[in-house]
Amino acid sequence: MNNKGFTLVELLTVIVIIGLLIAITIPATSKIIKASKEKAYTTKIEFIESEAALYGETNLDYLRKGMDFDTGKTSLCEFSDSERPVVNYISNLDYSDNILDGRTNTYLCIKIKVKDLAINKYINYDKEDFCSNNANCNSSNENSYNNQVINNMTEDIINECNVYIYYKNNRGYAYFDKKNCDTVASDPNQASITGNSYKSIVWSK
Predict the structure, then answer these.
(1) I need a surface site. Which of 77, 130, 196, 203 has the fewest CB within 10 A?
(2) Cβ atoms 157, 145 nearer than 8 A
(3) How many CB atoms lie within 10 A of CB 9?
(4) What is the pLDDT of residues 165-205, one digit of tens each?
């Protein structure tokens, strides 16, 4: 009876083959995961825009005049002609029936934050009550970290990112400012001003 086991050469061959398979599989798996996250983020943006448009339709009296909810002043959104539009947001104007005369690619609009859609139940938070029993949360930062809408790719918080709802062809449309949102601000207060995303805090008990 021959109980001969694997030779050293055979073992090394098997190890090399396994190593090659791992070297091939890991990058492929990483690409699949990255593509999946990108798709999820794109889908989330599309959903945010569709719900923001619905938000605009619900508040059509405001949208028709581009009326800011807080100031009562009128705002305009001027879109660039580039493939990835840039919005020039013109705010604090006095409304008039001819306010758009002589302007191109410009619409009456209102600017809201992603968190406004969540607060008004148009979208859901990805993380809720994050600050519950979290020692790193306190009264000064709880509003920024407790309930979070997340960038699927980076896990950054997009609560303060801007969504522009504009009035065109007698209906509401929405544009999520991805370019600014994908820039990460140093803190939530800065993000609120610039429309950037910001990092979450570490969980700690």
Answers:
(1) 203
(2) yes
(3) 8
(4) 999 999 999 999 999 999 999 999 999 999 999 999 999 87
Q: How does pLDDT run across 84-117, given as a tens digit for each residue? A: 788 999 999 999 999 999 999 999 999 999 999 9
User: What does the buried/exposed string (b/e) look like for 21-39 if buried means 16 or more CB atoms within 10 Å of the residue's CB?
Assistant: eeeeeeeeeeeeeeeeeee
Q: Which two tokens stand for residue 80?
A: 């660039």
List the domain boundaries for the chain: 8-198
Kindly give, in sequence order, each residue whose CB lies less than 8 Å from that of residue 144, ignoring residues fewer than 6 positions away.
157, 159, 188, 198
3 state SS for 77-129: EEECCCCCCCEEEEEEECCCCCCCCCCCCEEEEEEEEHHHHHHCCCCCCCECC
In contact, 163 and 175? CB cutoff 8 Å: yes
Please name which of 116, 120, 127, 102 lies closest in space to residue 160, comparing C-alpha atoms.
116
Task: Characterise 129 by phi-psi region: left (phi > 0), alpha (psi -120 to 50), beta (else).
Answer: left
pTM: 0.84
